[in-house]
Design a protein that fits this description.
The chain contains 19 helices and 20 strands. It is an alpha+beta fold. The chain has four domains: 2-83 and 167-243, Roll (Ubiquitin-like (UB roll)); 93-162, DNA polymerase, domain 1; 245-358, Uridine Diphospho-n-acetylenolpyruvylglucosamine Reductase, domain 3 (2-Layer Sandwich), CATH 3.30.465; 364-487, 2-Layer Sandwich (Enolase-like, domain 1), CATH 3.30.390. Strands 2-1-5-3-4 form a five-stranded mixed sheet. It has a five-stranded antiparallel sheet with strand order 10-11-16-12-13. It has a four-stranded mixed sheet with strand order 6-7-9-8, covered by helices on one side. The longest helix has 19 residues, at 450-468. 49% of the residues are buried. The structure holds flavin-adenine dinucleotide (FAD) and FE2/S2 (inorganic) cluster (2 copies). Residues 37-40, 42-47, 65, 67 line the site of one FE2/S2 (inorganic) cluster. Residues 1-85 form the 2Fe-2S ferredoxin-type domain. Its EC number is 1.17.1.4. GO terms for molecular function: xanthine dehydrogenase activity.
């Protein structure tokens, strides 16, 4: 059984299929049709709802895409949908601002915008434009009503006052903490031939995997649930790693950062950026706030997509993962993890328990470039990560990895060889750029042609050199410009 709060009341659910989404629950089980289904793939934001979670610092309001969020994953949280935020006949301040700024255009996108703004209203932020753009990055408006929506956000954030949620915060926290304690060891959702398990620790994950070899693992569901909503593949047996309390850790020692399998992109951001500020742009352009709040680093690696953004980062920085099973744990360098298209070193009964990133080395010059059709909320056509060890301006060690250039995320060993020994100020980088064609044979697909991928990957080497010598004109993102200065010779 799962238990969560909805409209201040405790809801308990057991007898529904494991692949029921939060959107299915709202629209089909509860008849609450304010939350819309636009794309059913996490892309448009029409289905945005907010989960209030109990943390040590108090309540955290997390926007998610209900269309791909497993219902089983919301145990112990408060589910807030667009119907819930009005107080009697009085609009919530974000709704009022949407009306007053003429920002409410179509009935599809508007509820999603409102909920993203509701999460922002409760976030610990300054109300700056950058924060608003980040919060709205996962919401599409096809009628180009974006400017009034941003105006509405600015208006609502200019005078944040207590709403019914902040007034009830302590009572909600108490209710949520009590719910957490009701976690059971048996399947959380159970119906005919369908089970959703929420194991409380990593040992239990391993045990369940051994007992249910047919099960699929789920963390955020931001990849997995698309199999259900887009390809209509049933997911009858699911094991949710995000329920395991010992998989939420972020541990840093002098050598490594270790991220448990349940750590979301949003949760790992601060630790990663402290060591590697050059990754700020890549992380902020990963999906949307909804996707980063739901999806995990481990899920991105285990998914083994050739166009995933984290694999090239971990390949270039010498990362590794820990695979765990009922037989024990083994360490696998990321260099050995991806075998062929969507085939990895992970064996039956194993799961990714930890993702390991080395701490920053001295004299590293790092760049991560994401090339996609849209700046926000888009999958990479090409993602190139360059980690160069330097003595003065000379490259003494080069690790270069690409996504989108082969059937797996892959290192470019010829490029690395061509870069090693190069003086980044006085030597030409053309030979290293030409070596791209030796290392990679990309394919044509809907995102980009093979020729485009080869050309753009080679041009990224020119960009790398330009940025090294201090030319920030290659950047469109302001963070990138400042990071170029921070990181050049760190
Ligand atoms: C709108 C949208 C935008 C996106 N943008 C990006 C982007 O910019 N860059 C990018 O790289 N990706 C992007 N993605 C893909 C996805 O969000 C990421 O890959 C995410 O990190 C997956 O994590 P998850 O926790 O949701 O994985 P899930 O969907 O839960 O799982 C993914 C796969 O890994 C398996 N799995 C999950 N956890 C484990 C584990 N611990 N051990 C072993 N197997 C496991 C699952 O069985 C499944 O096969 C996007 C997706 C959407 C829908
Ligand atoms: S319906 Fe489009 S993101 Fe969920
Ligand atoms: S609000 Fe829906 S298209 Fe603009």
């Amino acid at each position: 059984m799962i238990r969560f709060l909805h409209q201040e009341r405790e809801v308990a659910i057991e007898d529904v299929p494991a692949d029921t989404t939060v959107l299915d629950y709202l629209r089909e089980h509860r008849g609450l049709i304010g939350t819309k289904e636009g794309c059913a793939s996490g892309d448009c934001g029409a289905c945005t709802v907010v989960l209030a979670k109990a943390t040590e610092q108090g309540l955290q309001y997390v926007p998610i895409n209900a269309c791909i969020a497993p219902l089983g994953s919301i145990h112990g949280t408060q589910l807030i949908s667009v119907e819930d935020i009005k107080e009697g006949a009085t609009w919530h301040p974000v709704q009022r601002a949407m009306i007053e700024c003429h920002a409410s255009q179509c009935g599809f996108c508007t509820p999603g915008f409102v909920m993203s703004l509701f999460a922002l209203y409760h976030a610990d932020i300054k109300g700056e434009r950058e924060e608003i753009l980040e919060a709205l990055g996962g919401n599409l408006c096809r009628c180009t009503g974006y400017r009034p929506i941003i105006d509405a956000a600015e208006q609502a954030l200019a005078h944040v006052e207590d709403d019914k949620f902040s007034r009830r915060a302590q009572a909600t926290l108490d209710q949520l903490r009590a719910l957490k304690d009701t976690e059971s060891e048996t399947a959380a959702l159970e119906s005919t031939h369908s089970h959703y398990f929420r194991p409380g620790n990593a040992d239990h994950v391993a045990q369940l995997l051994a007992q249910h070899p047919e099960a699929r693992l789920v963390a955020g569901g931001t990849d997995l649930f698309l199999e259900n909503t887009q390809s209509l593949t049933p997911l009858p047996v699911l094991i949710d790693v995000s329920a395991a309390s010992d998989l939420h850790h972020i541990d840093c020692d002098t050598e490594h950062m270790r991220f448990g399998a349940a750590v979301t992109h949003r949760a790992c951001q601060a630790a990663v950026i402290t060591d590697y500020p050059e990754l700020t742009e890549l992380i902020e352009r990963f999906g949307s706030l909804q996707i980063r709040s739901q999806g995990t680093l481990a899920g991105n690696i285990a998914n083994a997509s050739p166009i995933g953004d984290w694999p090239p980062v971990l390949l270039a920085l010498g990362g590794a993962i820990e695979l765990r099973s009922s037989a024990g744990t083994r360490l696998v360098p990321l260099d050995d993890f991806f075998l062929e298209y969507r085939k990895t070193e992970q064996q039956a009964g194993e799961f990714v328990a930890t993702v390991i990133l080395p701490r920053r080395k001295k004299n590293l010059f790092l760049r991560a470039y994401k090339i996609s059709k849209r700046f926000e909320d888009d999958i990479s056509s090409v993602c190139g990560v360059f980690a160069l060890g330097l003595e003065g301006d000379r490259v003494t060690e080069a690790k270069v990895a690409f996504g989108g250039m082969a059937a797996i995320p892959k290192r470019g060993t010829s490029v690395e060889l061509a870069l090693t020994g190069l003086d980044l100020v006085s030597d030409s980088i053309d030979a290293a750029a030409a070596a791209i064609a030796n290392d990679f044979e990309p394919i044509d697909d809907a995102r980009a042609s093979a020729q485009y991928r080869l050309t753009v990957a080679a041009r990224l080497l020119t960009r790398l050199q330009q940025e090294y010598i201090g030319d920030s004109a290659t950047r469109v993102h302001p963070l990138g410009i400042s990071q170029a200065g921070v990181s050049s010779h760190g």
